[in-house]
Amino acid sequence: MLNRLDLKYFKCFESLQLPLKSLTLLSGTNASGKSSALQALVLLHQTMREHEWSTRLMLNGEAVRLGTVTDVVDEINGLKSFDIGVVHDEASYLWTFTGERKELSMDVDCVVVNGETYQQPSQLKHLLPSAWAESIMPYRIKNLTYITAERIGPREVYALEDEQTASVVGPKGEHAMSVFYLKSEDAVLNELLIENESRNTLFHQVTAQMRQFFPECGLAVEQVSNVNAVTLRLRTSDSGEFHRPMNVGFGLTQVLPIVIAALSAKKEDILLIENPEVHLHPAGQALMGKFLAKVASAGVQVIIETHSDHILNGIRRLVKAGGISHKDVALHFFRARSVDAAQVVSPQINANGDLDCWPDGFFDQFDKDMNHFAGWD
């Protein structure tokens, strides 16, 4: 499991040491660094995945496109380099990347693994010297699933791609239907996520989970004859007809990639998800929080960025119910950098789902608004 993310001079961070747990929730004000923390991991992921032997960090790829060195280095202190570090189980890894400000990628200037330094390495695999390239950490980062807030909406047809290309759902959920169709008869390997009343195939388990969010939801995926494409049809009633996705609403197609990714994951896989609450009713958002906490309790590491107090409360409810240990949950509240306040505050959650503090701006807008109407402000 990833235990910590370390950043120095990356985007808005002068320095950050962010503890990670089985389930980590990132919240905070806009432009405070939540997405940047995820993007640091995604940069490692996309370079390892798309450029296995590269000695440069690729700032632009299929997962993220962050621009030039100027766009990713802390403009106050960073000049033309930054550090990304991860602690994985008992091992620590730290990279220093450098580049000219208009470049689209950056040199690996230095790699430090468990205190052993490799200066300006000439040959790397998965951004690591050969002695460490086959360790479990790069495998997990290379194969993580990253789902952005900008997931694709309803489509008439979805591209069908080879399993080598579409091994995960993709950052916008663009490969979700390929994964769903190609693996529809595969068993869900994580037994803790199996709904026992349904057959253990990906198709039936995804359908069963979708019905938790949308009662009586039905799914149908079929290949278009002589075309590398599939169609998705949805229904919202057991007695109703199947319809094109654009006639059913955005909520189902926004949730579906997350459910497919979660049920396709194996224990110790990593899921990074931005705004899982998109297009969901508040009750559905709370269910999403509980679902992702359940996924984390089943051994998949889940890191969420969210603006939804309902996601948080869904997690708190599962903690109180004993579905996930409070020791396996980390909560981080990001705020704009200031000289006299910490950039990240981390409320602690107890076994009853209660938090030890509620920083100003941490999911407190409802109370502030109610106080306004009561004339207390």
Short description:
With 377 residues, the chain is of the alpha+beta class. It has helices at residues 34-50, 69-72, 136-142, 176-182, 202-213, 250-264, 282-297, 309-321, 365-373; strands at residues 2-10, 13-19, 23-28, 56-58, 81-88, 91-98, 105-113, 116-119, 145-147, 158-159, 218-223, 229-235, 270-274, 301-305, 329-334, 344-345.
- CATH superfamily placement of the largest domain: P-loop containing nucleotide triphosphate hydrolases
How large, in whole angstroms, is the Cα Rg?
A: 21 Å
Question: Which shape, going by the Cα principal axes?
Answer: globular
Largest sheet: 7 strands, antiparallel
- Helix count from the secondary structure assignment: 9
| Name of the CATH first level of the largest domain | Alpha Beta
Helical percentage: 25-40%
Q: What is the helix/strand order?
A: EEEHEHEEEEHEEHHEEHEHEHEEH
Question: Ranges with pLDDT <50 over ≥5 residues?
Answer: none
Classify the fold: give the CATH topology of the largest domain. Answer: Rossmann fold
| Average pLDDT metric | 93
How many structural domains does the protein architecture include?
2
Distance between the termini: 45 Å
Strand content: 15-25%
The number of E-state strands comes to 16
What structural category do the secondary elements indicate? alpha+beta
Query: What CATH architecture of the largest domain do you see?
Result: 3-Layer(aba) Sandwich
Protein topology:
Layout: E1 2-10, E2 13-19, E3 23-28, H1 34-50, E4 56-58, H2 69-72, E5 81-88, E6 91-98, E7 105-113, E8 116-119, H3 136-142, E9 145-147, E10 158-159, H4 176-182, H5 202-213, E11 218-223, E12 229-235, H6 250-264, E13 270-274, H7 282-297, E14 301-305, H8 309-321, E15 329-334, E16 344-345, H9 365-373
Helix pairs in contact: 4-6, 5-6, 7-8
